[in-house]
Amino acid sequence: MARPERRTVRDIRRGNRAVLLHTLYFSGPTSRNDLTARTGLSAATVSTMTAGLLGENIVVEAGQVESDGGRPRVLLRVNPEYGFAVGVDMAENHVRVGLFDLEMTERAKVDYVLRPVRHDPELVARHILAGVEVVLSDAGVPPEQVLGIGVGVPGIVEPGPDGVIHAKPFGWDGVPLGALLRRGTSLPLYVDNGAKTLGQAELWFGSGRGSSEAVIVLLGVGVGATIVADGTTFRGASNSAGEWGHTKIVAGGRPCRCGGRGCLEAYVGIEAILDRAGVDSQGDWEEDLDRLLASESPVIQETVTYLGVGLANLVNLVNPEKIVIGGWVGARLGERLLPEIRRATAANSLAEPYAATSIVLGRLGPDAVALGAATLVLEEFLNTPQVARITAAG
């Protein structure tokens, strides 16, 4: 029988501080009285903790609100300029680096183009490191104000300090991206799957906010999902849960980039859509998809059907209250065809779980993966409001 974990006074204080900071961050400007009610902490604890946070400039005053018969109550908020987070979206055709304040407002951004057929790890690491320097310079933010760098990548990310990535379409099998980046920066690093970073962004700030049972899907070149159970991202035994794009929808079907056949990604990923339509793309995927949508090609309706099957599998298996469709392909399909996508999902779902599910579009746009990567840094800051150690998410 395992012994119960012993918690010191310092552990309790750290936990209380994290609870207070989380509540203050997600509630917006809040009075001490409201913090006491929302956290369950004593008024004395809230007063002591907020005094400490004010003294460290982590929290600032944000005006006053009238109270019933007493003095106006001072509102508090997390100081958006206490620190900054870098968020990186590493995709098949670009590396996007953004700098965000603690309100997750983007202060600077830079993009580097990648050739879809070439993803040299050293080149990718150089782009990321160069991008960090550019966004800090453009925003006039010194490195000591940066709390960390979050990186969203395609593929499976092993838990551990080296950020080891397995991404077959890139030819990456055990690439230690975190270790490569550490050669050029001493800032804390967090590496996670891009679908999961997008999912966390939508869960915290977008269409998934307030949902405790949800699936946020990413449709782009690759296809993936974040499964949220009881308000927490489900990661599985080896951090690879959510590889929805590699569930099979056609036995022995089209070849997939992963080496298998019949995967959902082989039908609804952008390369698969264009290939089925006979489009000889030169890498201008967004323009090619827009033209295909405008032409009302039958391939688009086929894609909606395949997507509906994939979403129905999530409905039947996970029973979410909400499915959020994200990613740039998902946004383009959903903006024009969301009612058809819902009908295709309903046609392939069990009636009871489908009736409990709403299917909506993501709200955060093309920078959602980078924003979500920055939330990896924010999450560590809220849990331990100090500069965090170098790690890999998961």
From TrEMBL:
InterPro entries: ATPase_NBD, ROK, WH-like_DNA-bd_sf, WH_DNA-bd_sf. SUPFAM superfamilies: Actin-like ATPase domain, Winged helix' DNA-binding domain. Signal peptide: none annotated. Belongs to the ROK (NagC/XylR) family. This is ROK family protein. It comes from Microbispora cellulosiformans.
